Amino acid sequence: MSTTLITGISELVTMDPAHGPAPSAATRPHLGVIERAAIVVDNDAVLWSGPQSTAPDADEHVDLGGRAVIPGFVDSHTHIVFAGDRSREFEARMAGDPYDGGGIATTMAATRDADEPTLAANARSLLTEMHEQGTTTVEIKSGYGLSVADEVRMLRAAATLTPETTFLGAHVVPPEYRDDRAAYVDLVSGPMLDACAPYVRWADVFCEPGAPTAFDADESRAVLTAAGKAGLGLRVHAGQLGPGPGVALGVELGAASVDHCTHLTDADITMLAEAAPDGPVATLLPGVEFSTRSPYPQARRLLDAGVLVALATDCNPGSSFTSSMPFCIALAVRDMGMTAAEALWAATEGGARALRRTDVGNLRPGSRPHLCVLDAPSYRHLPYRPGVPIASTLEL
Ligand code: NIG
Ligand code: FE
């Protein structure tokens, strides 16, 4: 297998404890930064990194002319398999309508009407958009089919695009079950889970007792417990619309991640801190707060309490139709009090932890050779140059 030496790297972020200066307040967590660096990769793995002056030979050579290289972004929460358009819903929201998840039914109807190749093609084009902006690992959820056949179709399409697939049959109660929620929870925890399990690694629930169509603690526990018994890892949409039992449930059931965390109680933060670092990662999705005009999550309190934080796009047609991890980093720094280093860690290593992966989100030897190159000298330019497409995946 041929090897490639990449030089001309002004700043290489490895996330490797073996590299870089001791972290200061501004650069904590430890990013493993090497200045004037080089890296050697083959098709499967990072082989070596270090100062360019000590670089070994390789079969091929690429010079980046003084640009920064970081690990490819890990977008650990997306809903990119869907059909239809909800730009008018967004327009109405900007004119004052609240976001309550009611539009999920609009996407469900359009998704049920679309054939599987169309669903796969829609998702593939969003995946390409993500890849072009430096994202190299993407989690994809179902949740717009909400029948056995339609959830299977969504997940079969998703599984052609990523190994990080998530069953979200418990997204909302579909209209045909509105008068019999218990029957829908039984369907999701039984026949729908059985049919979807071959295509997924994870299961998720929209746990939101204040929203009439989402799921309360008991309903969510029933679905997640069944999914756990089926061998799936667990994730929770928690505290998006208001404070609720989602975080506590995620901690109780050993979920890999609790996502949104827009509304957290003091007890939620204490629980997450006590469960860290092996308990759920708090995955923050600031594109949602931006696109729904909600208050941003208390990232600073989570970080100061020692909770592991990830950043993801939540790319979906309703609450956050962005595919851009750099945009989320910019929001996290501008509006959530995270340092550039914390936001970069959360968008790479943090996402990997939320997916319980050690081979992505970092550039340590043996990890996947997923490189994101910045048209800038430093990762600090990610929040400094908002909206400017400086990040791209390095194709070798
Ligand atoms: O993560 N909260 C539930 N699900 C998605 C939004 C889905 C939609 O509005 O279509 C979310 O925000
Ligand atoms: Fe979501």
From TrEMBL:
One of the record's GO cellular component terms: cytoplasm
Pfam families noted in UniProt: Amidohydro_1
Binding site for Fe(3+): 77, 79, 237, 314
Class of the enzyme per the UniProt entry, highest EC level: hydrolase
GO MF assignments: imidazolonepropionase activity; iron ion binding; zinc ion binding
Catalysed reaction, written as an equation: 4-imidazolone-5-propanoate + H2O = N-formimidoyl-L-glutamate
Residues involved in N-formimidoyl-L-glutamate binding: 144, 316, 318
Cofactor annotation remark: Binds 1 zinc or iron ion per subunit.
GO biological process: L-histidine catabolic process to glutamate and formamide; L-histidine catabolic process to glutamate and formate
Alphabetical list of InterPro entries matching this protein: Amidohydro-rel (IPR006680), HutI (IPR005920), Metal-dep_hydrolase_composite (IPR011059), Metal_Hydrolase (IPR032466)
Binding site for 4-imidazolone-5-propanoate: 86, 144, 171, 240, 319
Metal-binding is among the record's keywords: yes
KW Transport (keyword) present: no
Amidohydrolase-related domain sequence ranges: 69-376
Pathway linked to the protein: Amino-acid degradation; L-histidine degradation into L-glutamate; N-formimidoyl-L-glutamate from L-histidine: step 3/3
Subcellular localization(s) per the UniProt record: Cytoplasm
EC number: 3.5.2.7
Cofactor: Zn(2+); Fe(3+)
Function in brief: Catalyzes the hydrolytic cleavage of the carbon-nitrogen bond in imidazolone-5-propanoate to yield N-formimidoyl-L-glutamate. It is the third step in the universal histidine degradation pathway.
Name used for this protein in its record: Imidazolonepropionase
Taxonomic source organism: Phytoactinopolyspora halophila
